[in-house]
Amino acid sequence: MNPQPYLPGGTVYGTLLNFRREHALWAPRMHEAPYKSPPQAPVLYIKTANTFTRAGQPIALPGGVAEVEVAASLGLVAGEGGVVAGAVLLNDVAIAHESYYRPPVKYRCVDGFLGVGGAVRPVTDLGELAALVLELRVDGVMRQRTALADLVRDVATLWADVNAFQSMRAGDVLMVGTDCLDDGSRPRVKRGDSVEITATGFSPLVNGFVGENA
Amino acid sequence: MKRARIAWAGAVHDAVENRGELELLTPTFQGRRVGFDEVVWLPPLSPINRPRTVLALGLNYADHAKELAFKAPEEPLAFVKGEASLIGHRAFTVRPDGVNFMHYECELAVVIGRPAKRVKTADALQYVAGYTVANDYAIRDYLENWYRPNLRVKNRDTCTPIGPWLVDAADVPDPMNLALRTTVNGKLTQQGNTKDMIFDVATLIEYFSGFMTLMPGDLILTGTPDGVVDCQPGDVIVTEIDGIGSLTNTITSESKA
């Protein structure tokens, strides 16, 4: 009997600017308006429950949106007592936006915009995650390799800095961030594309992209 | 009907207000009344089988936008909070050590009653289960201009009291004409009226449901008017909306343990 694929039982948080490549690309602008200074605390956003799409299920592009950004991330799943209990692959979908000034609700909280790996892998040693590499393919073609060795805040530091002001409750998920490509963009997909995210030790996460009402 | 969710006698119960007391709905205690002082008040929200979406608005009253030196936004300035920041009536909210400006925000909170996707303003209020009062505390010392208001300001543990009652939408004929006010230690510090919202409840439901499906139990905190002041440990903050309820909260200091 196959259990139903996993969906988060708690709030899912995303982390912005937590890969060195993107942080470095942004650094010259960080002192300019409207930002005025580099971020001190982790910059977080929430992926609301309406975004959750199970592994294998399609993700719909809203009408009028020709393409969306896709991004591989690892979600840290909280257990009891504020510890990381497991990790899950995620496809963090967004409508591209140039500004990081205002919260990105309409870009990131669109129905279906979070592909969720089918199972949570137990994690006992956060250190082992530093060696993890996520691979993102579109229709079988490699588009991006995301190495968790490139995090600004490593997994343990991010977890601690976030929990310093908001306790992660059992079932809550904290995404470690998503990397950008060399030019600062993220891979984009359109209707008909299939996105596969893989990492050693995890079942592949595949979501096809369709038109609305498909 | 005014609905509450409380802890009493070692268990959690749903209750309704009845002549100044809480009447329990739990089958075993059906009809039993308990006093407001005998219970622990929880957020007046039924559990749901998925993470609750908590949407909130910044700068949604013209006077408050002016107070914070912003021009009124052209579209809703929305942000999202985690359910873990919610606490009930008569609870404690922690002021971190060493901060200079922590303020309350008295807000009308909308609880969604049925799935809402691409709802038009004319129909929007039919999707509301009821209303309650939220106090969306902010600690301005932590403001940063990255996805502002950032979560360190707005998503802290204990920093979103809500309640005491969920008032059925049927009992709130005009949610857009409710006086709201805040007192600190009994002194009036904030006054406003929901009629002064820039984006009213129906417009907000249309806006959000245009790209995200709202589900029963989801929340929209609709923003706060002018008049926010600093709150210190020991201060008793009462955020109140006519016909909806009076939400009491006490500020406490960070534990030194």
Describe, in plain words, how this protein is organized in 3D:
The complex is a heterodimer of chains A (214) and B (257). Chain A has 214 residues and is mainly beta. Chain A has one domain (12-211): Fumarylacetoacetate hydrolase, domain 2, CATH 3.90.850. Chain A contains three helices and 15 strands. Chain A has helices spanning 20-26, 105-108, 155-163; strands at residues 12-16, 43-47, 52-54, 59-61, 67-69, 72-78, 84-92, 114-116, 121-122, 133-138, 141-147, 173-175, 188-190, 194-198, 205-211. In chain A, 44% of the residues are buried. The mean pLDDT of chain A is 96. Chain B folds into two domains: 1-42, SH3 type barrels (Roll); 43-253, Fumarylacetoacetate hydrolase, domain 2, CATH 3.90.850.10. Chain B has helices at 62-67, 121-124, 151-154, 201-209, and strands spanning 2-8, 11-18, 21-24, 33-34, 40-42, 54-58, 77-81, 86-87, 91-95, 102-103, 106-112, 128-135, 138-139, 160-168, 179-184, 187-193, 219-221, 236-241, 245-253. In chain B, the strands form three sheets. In chain B, strands 1, 2, 3, 4, 5, 6, 7, 8, 11, 12, 14 and 17 form a twelve-stranded mixed β-sheet that branches. A five-stranded mixed β-sheet of chain B has the order 9-19-18-15-16, with no helix packed on it. A two-stranded antiparallel sheet of chain B has the order 10-13. Chains A and B meet through β1 and β2 of A and β7 of B.
